[in-house]
Q: What sequence folds into this?
């Protein structure tokens, strides 16, 4: 029971900490965008130093990188215009102040805030822990990205049978285990 309490406490603290961090980074990001818009860029480097931590938190919240298109004028004249076009990563350019990048980045921050808030709240929800115990094999296979659905179902049924067996014969199993260690 103590181990379960420690696990719950750790899950609560880790997710609350990440919730606090990503919320604080969103505020700093908004301050950065305002500073650049007001052309007071002398201290903007202090915001950019957080980029790797921000990306780590976003990826931890299962947010995938987005890509936006760009078109760049390479050369004009000489009988026509030459343009380069492609896409760029939002996470690699998170501190770009293009309106579309700011909108997508702010959305990513808010999704991450919601993710860590939900994980923090589920830490103290008894139904979350009950569901985790009842569907443990399924949850483990989902965590490992195991895709074969019939195998998941078979392992889940085997797990339920084993758990039922241990529940029904709990006292006998305890006595057998005690007899192994106490001679």
A:
């Amino acid at each position: 029971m103590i181990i379960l309490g420690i696990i719950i406490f750790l899950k609560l603290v880790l997710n609350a900490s990440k919730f606090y961090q990503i919320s604080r980074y969103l505020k700093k990001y908004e301050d950065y965008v305002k500073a650049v818009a007001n052309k007071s860029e002398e201290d903007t480097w202090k915001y950019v130093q957080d980029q790797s931590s921000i990306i780590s938190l976003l990826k931890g919240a299962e947010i995938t990188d987005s890509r936006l298109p760009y078109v760049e004028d390479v050369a004009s004249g000489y009988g026509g215009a030459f343009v380069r076009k492609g896409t760029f990563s939002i996470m690699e350019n998170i501190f770009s102040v293009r309106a579309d990048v700011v909108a997508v980045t702010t959305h990513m921050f808010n999704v991450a805030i919601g993710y860590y808030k939900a994980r923090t709240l589920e830490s103290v929800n008894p139904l979350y822990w009950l569901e985790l115990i009842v569907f443990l094999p399924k949850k483990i296979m989902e965590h490992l990205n195991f895709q074969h659905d019939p195998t998941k179902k078979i392992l889940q049924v085997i797990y339920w049978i084993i758990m039922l067996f241990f529940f029904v014969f709990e006292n006998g199993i305890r006595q057998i285990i005690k007899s192994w260690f106490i001679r």
In short: The chain has a mean pLDDT of 87. The helical segments are 2-37, 45-48, 51-60, 99-123, 126-134, 136-143, 149-168, 170-181. The first strand starts at residue 67 and ends at 75.
